[in-house]
Write a structure and sequence with these properties.
17 strands; 8 helices
Length: 322
């Protein structure tokens, strides 16, 4: 199958998010022989990020650097991306289903009068069709979609489609394109970013998440230690956030982040439906809860019934021995 594909990369402070590489792999799946063109917008030097996209499978990359793209705005990124789309006329566009992806892709799709398949977790070729699978009803069911005509435009959920191996021997052009920004309606003075030491929650392959069962902010400490030894990101239920034990940026669930790590360790979390909506598609789920009837055990692959303040430090010690 040969389609010219555009992959919209996402760089934070000039560094690409992993989902960009996964989006390149997705583009390769839908276009085995076609050209894969990457595009990255921002205010930083994007040359190195452009090369990274090439190492991960893009054939060439267009960078749009502009001070007005320092902070994401749908106006600014919209204008930059539409200028590139206009020039390149791709037959398909793929981007990560991130906060920015969720915001910009419907806008682009409406401008181009195209459809959009959002939040795909799998892409398969079945007969003549490319079938996109996406979770619906908070992950309780899966919908299969095909594109019958027009632009193939999709976003992919991070951590589901495996990126290709990095190949430093690949070469390709990284071209800077200048786009004049007109009538930007959104002006953001500054962005306050929570300092997230360590691993990015939405792209983490291991997550240790705490619930109201941790009982206090200090109760998160044993979970932090476990996360440290595992190289995991820390997450939380809304119960823990509402109780003030941790910041809302850690919230996982229907009204929080949706995650799909390889390993999700739920500690002192009851397993409310709204929490499951954000994590039930994790590849392996381990639950630690003192209540054997807790709903979280219904989705867990492995369960430990016990007091988390007893179990978690022991688990950390055991893992340190490995
Ligand atoms: P609880 O339900 O209070 O569970 C605490 C668990 O800890 C219990 O199972 C208990 O047995 C266990 N426990 C207690 N002490 C210990 C111990 N010492 N050792 C081991 N286990 C212990 N929730 C989310 O998480 N994410 C969302 O995005 C979200 N969105 C929502 C949206 C809406 C519109 C609504 C109405 C609710 C939403 N909720 C969300 C809230 C959700 O319904 C639950 O209230 C919440 O998930 C409960 O959090 P929890 O499991 O930490 O707390």
């Amino acid at each position: 199958m040969s389609r010219k594909m555009l992959v919209i990369g996402e760089a934070r402070d000039g560094v690409l998010r992993n989902v960009t590489f996964e989006a390149i792999a997705a583009a390769k799946k839908v276009s085995t022989d076609g050209e894969i063109v990457g595009v990255i917008c921002g205010a930083d030097d994007l040359e190195a990020a452009g090369k990274e996209m090439i190492y991960y499978g893009a054939d060439r990359v267009i960078t749009v650097k502009n001070d007005q793209l320092k902070t994401y705005t749908s106006d600014g990124y919209g204008q930059a991306l539409l200028a590139v789309i206009d020039e390149e006329s791709p037959e398909g566009i793929i981007m990560g289903h991130t906060a920015i992806g969720k915001d910009i892709t419907p806008k682009l799709a409406s401008k181009m009068e195209s459809g959009l398949i959002s939040d795909a977790i799998q892409i398969e070729e079945t007969g003549e069709n490319l079938v996109f699978t996406r979770p619906i009803y908070s992950g309780k069911a899966f919908e299969k979609k095909i594109i019958t005509d027009g632009l193939l435009f999709a976003t992919i959920r991070p951590n589901n489609i495996k990126a290709l191996e990095r190949d430093d021997s690949r070469s390709g052009e990284v071209t800077a394109k200048s786009v004049e920004m007109k009538d930007l309606r959104t002006v953001i003075q500054d962005v306050i970013r929570k300092s997230t030491d360590g691993v990015d929650l939405s792209e983490a392959s291991i997550i240790v998440a705490g619930g109201r069962g941790v009982k206090s902010a200090e109760g998160f400490e044993p979970l932090e230690e476990l996360a440290d030894v595992l190289g995991a990101a820390l997450g939380a239920s809304r119960g823990a956030c509402d109780a003030g034990y941790c910041d809302y940026s850690l919230q996982i669930g229907q009204t929080g982040k949706v995650v799909t790590p390889d390993l999700y360790i739920a500690v002192g979390i009851s397993g409310a439906i709204q929490h499951l909506a954000g994590m039930s598609n994790s590849k392996i789920i381990v639950a630690i809860n003192k209540d054997p009837e807790a709903n979280i055990f219904n989705v867990a692959d492995y369960g430990i019934v016990g007091d988390l303040f007893d179990v978690v430090p022991k688990l950390t010690e055991q893992i340190k021995q490995i």
